[in-house]
Amino acid sequence: MNNDIGIYIHIPFCLKKCYYCDFNSYSGKQDMIEEYIFALCNEILENSEILSQYKITTIYIGGGTPSYIDAKYIKQIMDTLNLYTNTEDLKEVTIEVNPNSVTYDKLITYKECGINRLSIGLQTIYDDVLKKIGRVHTFEDFKNALNMANKASFNNISLDLIYPLPDLSLDMLKETVDYAVSLKDKNIKHISIYNLEVHENTKLDFLLKEKYVSLVDEDTEYEMYKYINKAFKEAGYNRYEISNYALDSFESKHNLRYWNQELYLGFGAGASSFFAGSRYKNINSIEDYINNINNNISVIEEKEELDLLALMKEYIILQLRKTSGINIENFKNKYKKSIYDLFSNELEELTSNGLITKENNNIYLTDRGLEVANLVWEKFV
Ligand SMILES: C[S@@+](CC[C@H](N)C(=O)[O-])C[C@H]1O[C@@H](n2cnc3c(N)ncnc32)[C@H](O)[C@@H]1O
Ligand code: SF4
Predict the structure, then answer these.
(1) What domain range includes position 42?
(2) What pTM does this model have?
(3) Which of 58, 63, 166, 232 is 20 to 30 Å from 6 by CA-CA measure?
């Protein structure tokens, strides 16, 4: 039993759907929470034989809003994992929490069942902007949540921000970033700052199209981008992935698993997995998920078996998301072939366009490459 694996748990319930959100999350379905958790624990049990061959080193409880549901359900999931799988080597157990639904008692329960990392969604410090994106919390709620997390002795906390946002000026973005980096002594060890994605058919898409709200122009967005990188760097947060910054040794171990193309199993509605060279995805619908589990029908909706070439291309894209890039020796050890023999044309073109570079044994995105990473991915799809 030498191999290790990560576990993703999906909690698809939210108090209210945020206007920009395209995740598999639902409001108004709280009646199903109990049945859902029962089904999810059953899905873990159904996989316990496979899991018995692995050591679980990371668990990530995401959503949706895991802090929205009663903490006894989170305990039930952790108890199931602790009883029926190998969790002795756990290094990192993260839970996503929303500022308005987390309480001190919930945090204590999380602590007691082995959760050692929190991820809190703030997005911006401006209440009027939070309202315009449909968030249910205020900046004050966030400050209270962070104080409670510190009181409950969480010393590894991650913060989520988004930019640009409706009616958020450059100065407002700067204030948000300055506030984020002022929280080092409050145990904010990791900051994710995502570039806003406007998904079709979301309420935000409608509000923007109808001009009820607006976003800054491209040049101002680029100023925001530059400020973010400068401010985080100066504060000692190392950009280790396109959207992720961390103090030394506080990179997300679970997310690194994704970018290193390592194994993980996901449980719950819409959860995805990477196992034995294949990618899997569960059905999104909470109702169908519960129904299938209760009737011994598979909840897997999609399975994609990746051939060797597809695996190698995917590995390159995932590794290039990290600022340390692809280690040439690691690629050779993993795939028994030289990356230069296989992809010399692509690598030469990207190098001459100034999007990637090589230093020692690593190929990584240049500053320009980080800005237009999509142009790099295009070469490997
Ligand atoms: C899966 S969400 C769940 C966390 C929690 N429910 C919350 O909203 O705080 C994780 C993060 O993804 C980011 N996110 C969600 N939708 C996004 C979008 N359309 N564009 C950019 N970032 C997004 C937000 O920063 C959010 O905190
Ligand atoms: S709370 Fe998080 S998961 Fe839920 S709707 Fe908002 S962004 Fe999506």
Answers:
(1) 4-259
(2) 0.97
(3) 232
